[in-house]
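Aim 2 progress update. The chain analyzed this quarter is reproduced below.
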Amino acid sequence: MHEAEEDSGTVFRDVIMLTLLGFVTIVVLMLPHLNPPKADDTAKPAGNIVVEARWADGSSSDVDLWVQGPGDKPVGYSRKNGELFDLLRDDLGTERDLTGLNYEFAFSRGAPAGEYIVNLHLYSLRKETPPVSVEVAISLRNPVNGTLERIASRRVELNRQGEEITVQRFRLDANGALVRDSLNRLPKQLRSVK
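Predicted structure tokens:
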């Protein structure tokens, strides 16, 4: 009987050692996943060009922002995404809006060289009487330090339903910087362009 007890003790120790070895192996394999390395913070954030339009809070007027980048089709309420720009908020005035804020904005993915156009369109006055005053701000991400810098801001008045105004046109160079003296307001319709 003594020999049987010794064999069972050896088996028990072997099972304990194998279990301990398995546990240590699992811990070693899990260590790299417990504290993963931080993501690379050098990636460029979205929004190389940011265009914002804001009109009186609580207004029922539906004002639409339209933007166009080089080589792309215009982006606005009926075409919210292009190759370059995305319209992130299509504000309908007070309709279907719990906040009462009237604000539309578009962001670009990149800033290729060429001409950019920013327009406003008064889709509907609804209960309002004209004019509808809209503040538009255009910001460009600095290619050197990554900060957003305002390149243009303008207050415009829309006087009739269906009116479309070119708020600003500008050009960027191959480095994504504003071309000096390129800011202008030469009218160009964007809403009806297919």
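Residues 49-172 form one domain. The two ends are 95 Å apart (CA to CA). These observations will guide the mutagenesis experiments scheduled for the next reporting period.
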